[in-house]
Amino acid sequence: MLQRIGLQFDDIVKCFLGNACVEGGLHLPEGLTEDQMVEYWDTMMSRNSGPKKASLLGAGAYMHFIPAVVPHLASLPGFVTAYTPYQPEISQGTLQSLFEFQSFMVELTDMELANCSMYDGASSTAEAMLMAHRVKKADRVLVAATVNPNYLAAVRTYLEPHGIAVDVVRMDGNGRVSVEDLESQLSASACSAVLVQSPNYFGIIEDLGAIGTTVHGHDALFVESFTEAMALGLLKYGVGTGADVVVGEGQSLGLSMSFGGPHLGVFATLKKYNREFPGRIVGESIDTKGRQAFVMTLRAREQDIRREKATSNICSNHALNALTAAVYLGSVGESGFRALACENVAKLEKLIRGLEATGRFTRIFKQSPVFNEAVVASSIAPEDVRSRLAGLSVFPPLALARGVAPEVQGMPHTYLVCATEMLKDSVLEQVLGALS
Amino acid sequence: MTLYEKSVAGRSAFSFGFEEDHAAAEACVPEFARAAVKPLPQVSELDLVRHFTNLARTNYGVDTGFYPLGSCTMKYNPKINERMAADPRLTVRHPLDDAMDNQGVLQMEFELKESLQEITGMDDFTLQPACGAHGELAGMLIIHAYMRDHDGKRTKVLIPDSAHGTNPASASMAGFQVVTVCSDERGGVDMDALEKLMDDTVAAIMLTNPNTVGLFEENITQIAELVHARGGLLYYDGANLNALMGLIRPGDLGFDVVHLNLHKTFSTPHGGGGPGAAPVGVKQFLADYLPIPVIVCRDGQYALDEDRPHTIGRMSGFYGNTAVLARAYVYIKMMGRDGLLATSRAAVINANYVKALLSPYFPPAYDRPVMHETVLSAKGYDKYGVTLLDIAKRLMDYGYHPPTIYFPHFPPYAEEVLMVEPTESESKETMDSFCDALIKISQEAKEHPDLLLSAPHDTVVTRVDATYAARHLVTSRRDKKGS
Question: What DSSP element (H or E) covers B295?
Fold first, then answer.
């Protein structure tokens, strides 16, 4: 080969790098063989705590049941080893799967158009706020105090360099965003977007319809966000509640938590914003013989064409995870998805009842409906909770910092507890026994 | 046919032992609940398996054949990576669980960070960003925050005309005004242009090196000196690091911020468009600005540190795409020092080999050795009535994924360019066959142009009409029902 090229490798390198090569080579160990790698990995991973059957920990990542068929189909090499479907004739598998994902998202969010993925719920939410700013131009947005703090932080990160003020709408006494404060902040000065999450950080279902009506009394876009996609099986979002954008985290749709990623950003909006939304989208078309075929469309918004004027810099997205979510939804189907959502509501209800029965926990914001998370106060300190649950194969709940939720006399510690369909009665019994 | 058309009421692929009363659950939230019937398809498990298995068969992937898509580094990704990334000891870990219960995962991430520091010559890293463009945004936000604290009038970013679209889009998203620097006749940054543009309003220059035409930026030392002397910073887009591992380090060249596309250079299959991961490395003076959390090791214990007052904030909900980081970790661990060097060496030799074979038919714009990829011209085929697109589509009939086409756009390149990146994985035999096919197609263009014009012939669909898709916007099943 070098003969054909007519140069030695060192000559090629020299003509670029001169003599600047890394002296003595990189300070990295010699490579491992595959069996050595497996052994090294095993030793390392055994430093994690033991396997888990259920999780009392949610707050943006959720442990759900993943049917065997989901990773099986999502691992097919045809899907896994392809790239962005620039050449539709040999990428119909990816394109059609993403079209089906978009269809599912449109139905579940009750919006008109969904892209084929963003990175995760937080970045997708931040992109929605940027889109609202492009549309409305006012250098101010409102975010409910009840939004997951990591989502709020991502919104701030994305908006800060553009000089867009991020004002927080306070929480009412029931753990929901205060519609009164929202109205007064909207009246105070112009604003591009209002961001509300439901279920919110405290697991509480916000009254999106009422909020939507308030927002549309002013000239702002209403951005609905969710961290728990399982809620899409039961709760109302989208045009019915006045949303301009519905964004959120799709990890619960057949994806593992994997210590934080890769997860799945969902982004759905109205057709009137089809020149403004970020990310890729697949459309249906025809081939030269008139047969149904799929292709990426509305491309003129994207960075490879518009460069600095693009609606977003996003290029690679989380396509394989979108495909996984499509397989998952195809697998659980119409009845299964709603049943799962209901099972989550019921499991949380059972967990709360059980915790309160111990006399050492009490639910905060009792009047507000919840999905699969809720805030509880407790007399037991976080270290104690951890050690009591240590042998039980469950992730312990998130301890909230002081001041995040109202204090309860004699119960100085607050927790965000989560229950999913994974919390079987047998495990729940052990949990309650340990916390009694 | 989509899954909806295969749906039959009452069918299900789901088997789950529910324990609770769902009527009571529904009654909990009546005013917030949506209509009872969910518009999802109802199929059996076998229907589902056949549907997606057959879809997967219509896709071309690296496991199917040669995929020389320039700038995307479609190398082979070892299967051991997949096995490790699917380990339940990693997949069933909650990102907010206590660090002490996750020392194994954190050790993996910390060791990966240390390896990336060594490979790039940078002082610190965040593993948080999800993909290349996300890494660029994080890097540019770091520069934006640093300049806000030190030199607020620097609001512009210089970007060569050869850069990927993500560079200007990322700089713009980070609040900068983008100024394009033209290339010189050798394919590098035009030094005279840079000299004129580099003033005290410029925060940074973003460079991809080797650049998108596969050429190493020859004047990098002078560029670094000039930009630094005038108070700017250097951003390194690591999309093409595949050519440089063990040969040269961006940190040693003077770059202040780098991002790496782990899914390219460090081996994660591209999944039809992602997910990937793009760690961002910085020199020490920028380390305080890294997004939170930052992985640290104190007294032999790993933790995620959030107490960083100067941080740009959070780029995403959690620390990063751990399952992608795991693949990169395994790749680096198994390649080792010599393996990484051998990878870059093979990537460079392969690109030059393909260039040598194809040059007589598709001349390179710059006739000098390339690094990891080569840009060739398909100009002149229009006299036979065919375009580069026709040539690319015809390649599919020969069983290949076409190279990147019509990119880059900048002069002296005409529109008709193809960018071939064979990667290090491919054998001489595979590259020979690919080049033979392309050469044969160049003959066909003269003798049977209709073969190209009507290509591809052997695919599940023939050419897809992109204009039709844009005109009759159907992006979900709901649009179809409405039409």
Answer: strand B294-298
Tokens for A390, please give them. 């240590």
Helices (H) and strands (E) in chain A, counts: 14, 15
3-class DSSP state of A417: strand
Q: Is B364 on the interface with A (CB under 8 A)?
A: no
Can you say whether residue A55 is alpha, beta or left, with left for phi > 0 and alpha for psi between -120 and 50 degrees? beta
Instruction: Note whether B314 contacts A: Cβ–Cβ < 8 A.
Output: yes
> Quick one: DSSP state of residue A18?
T
Q: How many Cα atoms sit within 13 Å of B214 on the Cβ side?
A: 36
Distance from the A30 Cα atom to the nearest Cα atom in chain B, whole angstroms: 5
Whole-Å CA distances, A320 to A73, A76, B56, B127, B273: 11, 11, 12, 20, 7
CA distance B442 to B380: 11
**Which residue in A71, A87, A286 is closest to B465 by CB distance?**
A286
d(C-alpha B28, C-alpha A169), whole Å: 27
Angle at A119 between CA A115 and CA A123, to 5 degrees: 95
The first and second tokens of residue B62, run together, are: 């690296």
Q: Is-contact B251 B281, C-beta < 8 A?
A: yes
Q: What is the pTM of this model?
A: 0.98
What is the C-alpha to C-alpha distance for residues B340 and A258, in angstroms, rounded to an integer? 27
Query: Least CB-CB distance to A317: which of B245, B273, B313?
Result: B273
Q: Which residues of B touch A77 (CB under 8 A)?
A: 56, 61, 63-64
Q: Does B254 touch chain A (CB under 8 A)?
A: no
- Burial A240-263, CB ≥16 within 10 A → b, else e: ebbbbbbbbbbbbbbbbbbbbbbb
Distance to chain B for A199, nearest Cα, Å: 11
For testing the chain B interface, which of A313, A370, A388, A429 should be mutated: the one with the most B CBs within 10 Å?
A313
Question: What percent of chain B stands above pLDDT 90?
Answer: 89
Alpha helices in B58-187 (DSSP H): 79-85, 88-91, 103-120, 132-150, 166-173
Q: A427 pLDDT exceeds 70?
A: yes
Q: Does B46 touch chain A (CB under 8 A)?
A: no
Model confidence pLDDT, tens digit, residues B73-87 = 999 999 999 999 999
DSSP secondary structure letter of residue A44: H
Q: How many CB pairs under 8 A join A and B?
A: 647
Q: What is the ipTM of this complex?
A: 0.97
